[in-house]
UniProtKB/TrEMBL annotation:
Designated name of the protein: Pyrroline-5-carboxylate reductase
Function of the protein: Catalyzes the reduction of 1-pyrroline-5-carboxylate (PCA) to L-proline.
Molecular function terms, GO-annotated: pyrroline-5-carboxylate reductase activity
Species per Swiss-Prot/TrEMBL record: Halobellus litoreus
Keyword Amino-acid biosynthesis: yes
Keyword flag NADP: yes
One annotated Gene Ontology cellular component of this protein: cytoplasm
Biological process (GO), any one: L-proline biosynthetic process
Enzyme class: oxidoreductase
SUPFAM superfamilies from the UniProt entry: 6-phosphogluconate dehydrogenase C-terminal domain-like, NAD(P)-binding Rossmann-fold domains
Gene name per UniProt: proC
């Protein structure tokens, strides 16, 4: 059993706790200053606490708080060199965190799909950490990147689920307007995204080739794709990602002041 503590039981911290509990093999301590935060995760944690001393002996401590709260937690968090501190705060660099702790610091950008163990995560580290590798592998897929690309990853896989939710919602809404039941449209739209994503991950074909595989000459799909190709939707989606990346960079500048 690996001892893991999660500091901060909000949406992302709760998703990590839920996913690790489902994976099994973890003894999970959940910390938050607000006892009400435990309501949604109490069934998944082995222990809940409002005392920061209770997290200090864990092999891995996950810092899952908002960027502006990170310095406040680090002031009172005393970890040893043999421990690992995983930070998931957007815009807060490894150097900023490492200057306040003796623990090995690993920076990760996860997303909410950790809850269902379908997470996409980016990790930046000086050397691979076996415990973190195991955790990320149990929660989904991860890639290793240079830390100077973490703002892009924050926008892509960190903010990306919200962009996908928006697109699923748009497809559902129009299907309802065309006559489908709302719940059935939701299932079909969501499962379509899930299946398409799985197809990409399992295929070596390019995105363009996969689109062509669905499009028959004179068929329904190419009729719809013509609308997309003639629109600015690709630019708008890209602009949304760039806006999120810029905000991550701004948060980094604020954290270093």
């Amino acid at each position: 059993m690996m001892d893991v503590s999660v500091i901060g039981c909000g949406n992302m911290g709760g998703a990590l706790i839920t996913g690790l509990s489902d994976a099994g093999g973890y003894r999970i301590t959940a910390y938050d200053v607000d006892p009400d935060a435990f309501e949604s995760i109490e069934a998944y944690a082995d222990r809940t606490t409002t005392d920061l001393d209770d997290v200090r002996d864990s092999e891995v401590v996950v810092l899952a708080v908002k960027p502006d709260i990170v310095p406040l937690v680090l002031e009172d968090l005393d970890l040893r060199a043999e421990q690992t501190l995983v930070t998931i705060a957007a815009g807060v660099s490894t150097d900023v965190v490492a200057s306040e702790t003796d623990a090995t610091v690993v920076r990760v950008m996860p997303n909410l799909a950790a809850r269902t163990r379908n997470m996409a995560a980016a990790v930046a580290w000086e050397a691979p950490d076996e415990n973190v590798e195991r955790m990320l592998g149990d929660l989904g897929e991860f890639v290793v990147i240079d830390e100077n690309l973490m703002d892009v990853a924050t926008a892509l896989n960190g903010s990306g689920p919200a962009f996908v939710f928006y697109l699923v919602g748009a497809m559902q809404k129009r299907a309802v307007e065309e006559g489908l039941d709302a719940e059935k449209a939701r299932v079909l739209a969501a499962q379509t995204f899930k299946g398409a994503a799985e197809t990409i991950l399992r295929s070596e074909e390019s995105i363009e080739d996969l689109i062509d595989a669905v499009c028959s000459p004179g068929g329904t799909t190419i009729e719809g794709m013509d609308v997309l190709w003639d629109s600015d939707v690709e630019q708008e989606v890209g602009d949304a990602l760039s806006a999120a990346r810029r905000r991550s960079a701004e948060l980094a500048e604020e954290a270093e002041k």
